[in-house]
Design goal:
10 strands; globular; binds pyridoxal-5'-phosphate; 12 helices; alpha/beta; about 300 residues
C-alpha cells in the first residue's frame, strides 16, 4: 500500500520574555516546516483520507472551504504531490485571492456555491449531486474534520515525543494549540488518553459548537478550551498584530494572526494569570497556515 509521508516537524525551544518571567519552559512543534506547500495540521488531518482514497482506488478527492482556506490549499498540494485529482467547493462567489490562484495552479477544479449553497453543506443530500458528478471520488468534510481527521493527529504527538529528549526534557506537562473546528485538539486528546493535558485556544466564538464537537470526537477528558477569538473568526485588531510582530521578532518564528497568533496571545494571558506553575513544560503547536497571511496583510 502507498505510504503518505512528509518529513518530521522539528521541535524547537520557544523563548519569549513572558514565558521566562513565569518560569514556564516551552517548545514549539513546527508543523509549518513539514513541506513548502502542504502546511501544518491540515496534512495530519488529510493523511487518513489519502490512505482511504488510495485503498478504494478513488480517482480524486473533493472537499470544501473558503477562499483563504488552509485546508483546501493543503488538499490541492497533496493531491498534486501524490497523484490524485482534486475538486474544491468554495463558499461565496468567484473571487481571486492568492489562495484561489494557488488552488488553480495546483490543478484543483473549483466550484463556487454562493453563500446559501455553502450553508447547505451539512444537509443529508448535499453530497449526492457532487458524487454523481465525480463518481468514486473521496469526499472530505469541511476543514478535514471528523474521526479520520482526528485520528491522523496522533502522529503529531508521536513526532513531538520522539524529540523531547533532544531538548533535554524527560517529559512535558501540557499542549497548547489553536482550535478552529477542534479536530486537531480532539485528535491530541484521543492520542494522549489522559497522559498529558491539552489546551485548545478557540479561534471561533464558543457558541459555534466546537466544544460539543471536541467532546464527541475526543471521547476522553483531559483538555481545556480557552476563548481566543477576539470578537470572531477572521477578525484581527492592532494589539494582536503588534503582539504577533513582537513574538516573530523575538522568537524568529513566522506566525499568522488568525490561528497561531491568537493562540499564542491567549497563552500569554493565561501564563500571566498564573495558570501554569513555575517549572511547567509546554509544547505549543505551530499549526501552520502561513499561506493564509497573504489574505489579510
Ligand atoms: C485549520 C487551522 C487550525 C484549526 O485546526 P482544527 O483542527 O480545525 O481545530 C489551526 N491553525 C491553523 C493555522 C489552521 O489552518
Amino acid at each position: 500500500m502507498h505510504v503518505f509521508d512528509l518529513p518530521q516537524a522539528p521541535l524547537q525551544p520557544l523563548n519569549l520574555p513572558w514565558l521566562q518571567k513565569a518560569q514556564v519552559e516551552a517548545a514549539i512543534l513546527r508543523l509549518d516546516l513539514i513541506d513548502p506547500l502542504i502546511s501544518g495540521n491540515k496534512w495530519f488531518k488529510l493523511r487518513h483520507h489519502l490512505q482511504q482514497a488510495s485503498t478504494r482506488k478513488a480517482p480524486g478527492l473533493i472537499s470544501l472551504g473558503g477562499n483563504h482556506s488552509n485546508h483546501l490549499h493543503a488538499l490541492a498540494a497533496a493531491g498534486k504531490r501524490f497523484g490524485f485529482a482534486t475538486a474544491g467547493l468554495l463558499r461565496g462567489h468567484a473571487q481571486e485571492t492568492p489562495t484561489v490562484r494557488d488552488l488553480q495552479a495546483l490543478g484543483m477544479e473549483l466550484h463556487w456555491l454562493g453563500y446559501g449553497g455553502y450553508r447547505a453543506r451539512n444537509e443529508p443530500e448535499f453530497w449526492a449531486p457532487w458524487q454523481a458528478r465525480y463518481p468514486g471520488w473521496h469526499c472530505i468534510p469541511e476543514g478535514g474534520g471528523g474521526p479520520a481527521g482526528a485520528q491522523g493527529c496522533a502522529l503529531i504527538m508521536q513526532q513531538a515525543r520522539a524529540q523531547i529528549a533532544a531538548l533535554g526534557w524527560s517529559d512535558y506537562d501540557a499542549w497548547w494549540l489553536a482550535a478552529g473546528t477542534g479536530t486537531t485538539l480532539a485528535g491530541l486528546v484521543q492520542a494522549e488518553a489522559g497522559a498529558h493535558a491539552v489546551h485548545g485556544a478557540l479561534a471561533v466564538p464558543r457558541d459555534h459548537g466546537v466544544p460539543e464537537t471536541v467532546a464527541a470526537l475526543a471521547g476522553a477528558p483531559g483538555y481545556q478550551i480557552h476563548d481566543a477569538s477576539r470578537g470572531g473568526f477572521g477578525k484581527f485588531d492592532d494589539e494582536l498584530l503588534a503582539f504577533v510582530a513582537e513574538c516573530e521578532l523575538r522568537s524568529g518564528v513566522p506566525l499568522e494572526a488568525l490561528y497561531t497568533g491568537k493562540a499564542l496571545l491567549a497563552l500569554r494571558d493565561q501564563v500571566e494569570a498564573g495558570l501554569f506553575a513555575p517549572g511547567t513544560r509546554l509544547i505549543f503547536v505551530h499549526t501552520g497556515g502561513l499561506q493564509g497571511r497573504r489574505g489579510y496583510l
